[in-house]
Write a structure and sequence with these properties.
alpha/beta, 11% strand, disordered N terminus, 241 residues
Length: 241
């Protein structure tokens, strides 16, 4: 009997996370702001131990949050023994560095969280290549924070995918890897285009929708495909034909 494939979400220790959301121009209520982020965080394997929200007209250039809220966040992180702070907003590399200096814990934003989920969920060769490419492109301007030397990094959320290979990566090597991945993905795309062209006599129907909308469940009902269907955000990442 083949060994059960290890779920990469289970391959790291569960981390305690504080969630942070900034509502710009009152676009979201504090109550609703972190609802989806909590689901994403739990999908990534974290344990949510605290939440903090703020309303602002514009983000602070240095820390995204205002000075008083940063001080409040420091107390919340220390009081909950949090391992990571997850922002529902996209942070600049400088904002991330400044926040990590102030909080003394890892800080990741929404984009990095979603890429981490993709890294743990991708099953096919093409999906894994695409996730690695996206992670490297995201990380390239953040090398000073993330990849001074990979041996210094603590494993956990935001560090999976290419990070877990424990390579010493500098900007030149990252750029070369990005180029190699783009070349390989282009070749895969062309091969798939030829396969699709060979099926032109058949009608093609596509199911498209937001994560956890029920696409996999509907596909199973219509075709008996037996694809994974769970009540989780980004439970299924790979496409199925």
């Amino acid at each position: 009997m083949p060994a059960k494939e290890l779920n990469r979400t289970d391959s790291v220790d569960q981390e305690a996370a504080v969630l942070v959301g900034v509502s710009l121009n009152g676009s979201d209520s504090p109550k609703d702001l972190l609802e989806e982020l909590e689901g994403l965080s739990e999908t990534a394997g974290t344990r949510v131990v605290g939440r903090l929200t703020q309303r602002r007209s514009t983000p602070d250039k240095t820390t995204y949050l205002g000075k008083g809220k940063v001080e409040e966040l420091v107390e919340l992180v220390h009081g909950t023994d949090a391992d990571v702070v997850i922002f529902d907003n996209d942070l600049s590399p400088a904002q991330t560095r400044n926040l990590e200096r102030a909080l003394d814990v890892k800080v990741i934003d929404r984009s990095e969280l979603i890429l981490d989920i993709f890294a743990s969920r991708a099953q096919t060769h093409e999906a894994r290549l695409a996730v690695e490419l996206a992670q490297l492109q995201y990380s390239l301007p953040r090398l000073k924070r993330m990849w001074t030397h990979l041996s210094r990094l603590k494993m956990g959320i935001g560090m999976r995918g290419p990070g877990e290979k424990q390579l010493e990566v500098d900007r030149r090597l990252v750029e070369k890897r990005i180029h190699d991945l783009q070349t390989e993905l282009t070749a895969i795309e062309r091969r798939k285009e030829r396969q699709v062209a060979a099926r032109r006599e058949h009608m093609t129907v596509s199911l498209v929708g937001y994560t956890n909308a029920g696409k996999s469940t509907l596909l199973n009902k219509l075709t008996g495909a037996g694809v994974l269907a769970e009540d989780k955000l980004f439970a299924t990442l790979d496409t199925r034909t």
